[in-house]
Amino acid sequence: MYIEIDRSLRNPIRNQLYEKLLERILKGELAPGTKMPSSRHLHEKNNISRNIIIEVYEQLSSEGYLEGKPGKGTWVAESVILGDSYRRRVQTETATEKKTKRKDLIRFNCGIPDLKQFPVKKWKRSLDYAWSLADEKILSYPPVEGRPELRTEICDYLLLVKGIRVRPECLIITSGTSETLLLIASHFSGGARELIIEDPVIDFAPDIFNQSGYKLRGIPVDESGIDTEKLPSKPAGKLIFVSPSHQFPTGCVLSAKRRVSLVDYAARNGMFIIEDDYDSEFRYEGYPLRSLFLMNPDIVIHAGTFSKNMFPSIRLGYMVVPESIASDILMTKEKIQMRTPAQIQLAAAHFMKSGAFTKNIARMKRIYNRKHSLISQKLSEAFGDDIEINSNAAGMHLNVSHKRYKFSADDCRKFEEFGVGVDCEALYSLSGKKGGLLLGFGNVSEKEIAEGIKRLKQAVDSVIG
């Protein structure tokens, strides 16, 4: 059985799998009494984690769509198919409902910058410049480590903005953070496949390592970041994943004490820390936070992206790796043929060298700071003391926790009936715990923020009662 999963969507894989299977059952494509494929079969055919498949099967069974027969497998329940006329009516109503919802839906999507503000004309000039250089060598396969022009520019930028001094030989260009993590997962797959990871955490990170055969050991996150006191005394793997500067989705910052503890723990156990630094440029109070890489360049892999400080579809990122593993990482990258288009790299290098890159970041920082203040103000006006806003004055999203209620993914889906879309912390929890609401403010206007919070108040009130 082939299940079409779109890994570019923010909708988690487990949700997509559930929706696809339920749709096939209700349409009768999976008829009552049909034996479902085993989790192993679905895993092999669709490259989906068996844990996710088992979880979805259990959910569909609890809802009465599937039935488990001991020793025989899982089957479609006998009375769940919709009649043809009723099914057509439901599908028509659903399509109409979606159309109505999308018409004026205000979406507080996380992870998307203000795309209307990006200096497209300057970027076009950089693209034109890149294509003007096109010759036989540039049109061929780009170097696996990345174009030297871009690597040099990023090294200069890292020193200026983050204080990271690195030689170009230790900086590798990737097609975004997803590819960075896939490369790391592939490189370390020869050893014990266990990943210590924050919980909750950005969804694509556990998905990538799960699909690469890793076992995940989730460590809870609180207001001070990953709880280092709950790290295992004898770790089974070599990798730790954290986002210390602005944890997603909680919005917290890893405290100084825990930074020291985490780096010391990794060094003592011969481990590498993957530092996901996805939006540290956008900090609105105080000084930029010190990178974990600066604390121990021998064990920290610093992962950066251009998705937030430029635009997501550029599909461009980089990783700063310890000198001891740089050549081996490149060998792994060469084997699995990971290469980033030369023209995009050359254009990005020109964009940075011209000064347009840093000017755009400075401008967007002012815009996001204003939006951050506005959305915080509107939330406080609407909810008063019922909520706590967790943001640490950074990034492009807020984590809003309600003092009397924890939200589920189903709650958040109901909000669309009120014309507002938000992310839910529960979707990013490895343990499925309910939690706060996530409001991305990067790609919404100030007018939409004001109206969206009004709708959110109505939606929340309807759920809490």
What does this structure look like?
This protein is of the alpha/beta class. It folds into three domains: 13-95, Winged helix-like DNA-binding domain superfamily/Winged helix DNA-binding domain (Arc Repressor Mutant, subunit A); 100-117 and 359-464, Alpha-Beta Complex (Aspartate Aminotransferase, domain 1), CATH 3.90.1150; 120-355, Type I PLP-dependent aspartate aminotransferase-like (Major domain) (Aspartate Aminotransferase, domain 2, 3-Layer(aba) Sandwich). It is 43% helix and 15% strand. The chain has helices spanning 13-27, 39-46, 50-62, 84-104, 120-132, 136-139, 148-161, 177-187, 204-211, 256-268, 292-295, 326-335, 342-353, 356-383, 409-414, 446-464, and strands at 66-69, 73-76, 106-108, 171-174, 194-199, 215-222, 225-226, 239-242, 272-276, 300-305, 317-320, 387-390, 397-402, 420-424, 437-440. It has an eight-stranded mixed beta sheet with strand order 4-11-10-9-8-5-6-7. Helix 1 (13-27) crosses helix 3 (50-62). The radius of gyration is 23 Å and the shape is globular.
